[in-house]
């Protein structure tokens, strides 16, 4: 039994890599399936905003403290 990853043999390293790969694929698959089963109202649509009439912005006349 190996208690350290440094002294582990090749098959132990391979098992760790395979388990990590399977876990990563499972998490990615779960995330993709959760996203695909989401509400269909989350689609993105472009909205056009028309410019209004120009306005004049003036100062309020308040004194500034510097």
From TrEMBL:
Biological classification of the source: Bacteria, Pseudomonadati, Pseudomonadota, Alphaproteobacteria, Hyphomicrobiales
TM ranges: 12-32
Tree of life domain: Bacteria
Protein name: Uncharacterized protein
Presence of keyword Transmembrane helix: yes
Keywords: Membrane, Transmembrane, Transmembrane helix
Organism: Bradyrhizobium aeschynomenes
UniProt keyword annotation of Membrane present: yes
